[in-house]
Amino acid sequence: MDTNRYVEQLNFDREMSLDELIVAADTKSLVSILSNILCSEYQVKSMSGQTVLGCDTCQERSAIPIVIELEPIGYLIAETQDQERLETAKQCLLMQLRFAQKYLMASALHIEAIQEDYTTLCEEHKQLLASEVKYKTLSEHLDEKVNEQVHTIETAQRQLFESEKMASIGHLAAGVAHEINNPIGFINSNLNTAKNYISDFKSLGDQLKTAGDISVLLSFWNSADLDFVLDDFDELLSDCLSGGHRVAAIVADLKLFSNIDAEDEIEVDINKYIETSCNVARSTVGAGVEINFKQNPVPNLKCRPGYIGQVILALVLNASDAMAQEGRVELSSEFKNDKIYVSVKDSGPGIPDDVIDKVYDPFFTTKAVGEGKGLGLTSCRDIVIAHGGDINIDSGTSIGTTVTFWLPVANNT
Amino acid sequence: MAEFDEQGKRLTLKLVYYGPAQSGKTTNLSCLHEHLSPELKGEMMALETKGDRTLFFDLLPMGMHCPSGLMIKLKLFTVPGQVAHDSTRKAVLSRADGVVFVADSQSNQSMNNLEAFENLVANVSRVGLDIDTLPIVIQFNKQDLPDSLSQQEVLLRWSKTPWPVVFSSALKSEGVNETFIELLEKVYQSIDKSFHLTTEHGTSQDSFIDSLVIHAS
């Protein structure tokens, strides 16, 4: 049995018997006082017949009821018949019993109240403990959750890069196709013409073999306009050669730009990659766009050049879009304070104030749906920061937009 | 919850005077004790502090006999009003058969009245009683004081509640009996259902009240 709850059954306001009350009374003093008052044998008897005080062999000459609340809880029996003494004795007894009742009720009520407070406290304590456990678990898992989130963000970022990479390769492919088709086109046409010219000379050769007179040969030369043919032939072949060179150059660009898949850092001259990117851009942008690159000597930089090329391409395309495919895009590079600075400037309308804070946000674009994905500047910034550098935009309605980024050149390899 | 003692042929009812500190709960009981002579009357027991503030409770027992021989005993209790004595209030309120909520009519006591009433509602539920069936009478005491709310105002504020409002000035012995009678009527109706006082014990509502509310000469 839980001893803490033993009083639960005993309500403070229960009916209390004489037996119960006498326990809380000062029976020793009471006994002597009653003796003195009554000067005779007496007996205080409870309703159940128990002798609570006095002598149980007392002769019942007088008996008066003891009423505490409304009904008798016992009787005072005495051998004397002196009413005054009996009344005084009864009053004395009542006084003691009333105080006993008061005390017993108060203490029972006190215990009930304490029990209630204790129960409440235990409940609150239990809830606090549960709360504490919850927070402990939460903080233990926090590390886990943080790592999960970091992984998610890294994956998303990687996907972003892939997406942009694909876009720039797409541009490259488009440009390359165009660039190669052009020279191949006129090389083909020139060679066809050359073939015709060869047959003209063949005819001359036939004439040479059969004719006797030089004047016949001369008139054939003139009628076939072989002077022109000779000159033109030369030109044709020069054109074909330069066309061939152009194709070779494009293939070289292609090789450089294909380093986009190289995940390893290599030490390169960044100016070369900027030039290549400009070339790729030239084949993509409108005819009205002029792309100038003013390069200054820079030290070699250990980086992922494919990504840097991607940055330049994105910035140049942005610049030409801003100028609505008409105008000049100016690039420059320089080495200053252990950093390589590269800037791309356009003479467009500038970036409005309400937009400039969002330009780096992923998927933010001011272009029409389907035209821009809104990832260009986001990727540029991410790539530059990944290389330990930073990017900055200077823009206004009268000054166009200049995007400058810098990359640190580490002293150690 | 009325306690029925088969052996002693006694039905015990508990009535509790509840309310904010110093609203006049003890004064109500003293007044009843002084002015009533019910068929069976006991002494008033008060457990208070030196400043006459109820510490545990006050108790006034009274009773009457039914023609059937059944004794109906009423124990009137008051609770300590101060906020900190909530556990004591709960213990005194448990198993109550009726409640008088004694409110202080002074206008600056409105918040205290409200908080004490909310406390009553909460504790009624906590001790397992049903606020919808428990006999309750609202008493707005201290009507004699100058800064007290008008009766119109009080009745308006309490118009949406199901309980009767009685106005009193316990110090001047006004409204105390009326409140008590109002409660006895509601308590009688409540216990008659379970104990068939009218049919089995020969005690009607009127005779019940008349046996208790006998004015002392």
Compile the SSE list and pairings.
The complex is a heterodimer of chains A (about 425) and B (about 220).
Chain A: H1 18-23, H2 27-38, E1 42-46, E2 51-54, E3 62-67, E4 72-78, H3 83-210, H4 214-223, H5 226-257, E5 266-268, H6 270-284, E6 289-295, E7 301-303, H7 305-322, E8 327-336, E9 339-346, H8 353-356, H9 376-386, E10 390-396, E11 400-408
Parallel strand pairs in A: 6-8
Antiparallel strand pairs in A: 1-2, 1-4, 3-4, 5-7, 8-9, 9-11, 10-11
Helix pairs in contact in A: 2-3, 3-5, 3-6, 6-7, 7-9
Chain B: E1 3-5, E2 10-18, H1 25-35, E3 40-41, E4 45-48, E5 54-65, E6 71-78, H2 86-93, E7 98-104, H3 110-126, E8 136-141, H4 151-157, E9 165-167, H5 176-195, H6 205-212
Parallel strand pairs in B: 2-6, 2-7, 7-8, 8-9
Antiparallel strand pairs in B: 1-2, 3-5, 4-5, 5-6
Helix pairs in contact in B: 2-3
Description:
The complex is a heterodimer of chains A (413) and B (217). Chain A is 57% helix and 17% strand. Chain A has 9 helices and 11 strands. A 5-stranded mixed β-sheet of chain A has the order 6-8-9-11-10, covered by helices on one side. A 4-stranded antiparallel β-sheet of chain A has the order 2-1-4-3. Chain B has a single domain, classed as P-loop containing nucleotide triphosphate hydrolases (Rossmann fold, 3-Layer(aba) Sandwich), CATH 3.40.50. Chain B has helices at 25-35, 86-93, 110-126, 151-157, 176-195, 205-212; strands at 3-5, 10-18, 40-41, 45-48, 54-65, 71-78, 98-104, 136-141, 165-167. In chain B, strands 1, 2, 3, 4, 5, 6, 7, 8 and 9 form a 9-stranded mixed β-sheet that branches. In chain B, a hairpin with a 4-residue loop joins strand 1 (3-5) and strand 2. In chain B, helix 2 packs across helix 3 (110-126). Chain B is globular, with a radius of gyration of 17 Å. The model of chain B has no long low-confidence stretch (mean pLDDT 92). The chains are: A alpha+beta (413), B alpha/beta (217). Chains A and B meet through helix 3 of A and strand 2, strand 3, strand 5, strand 6 and helix 2 of B.
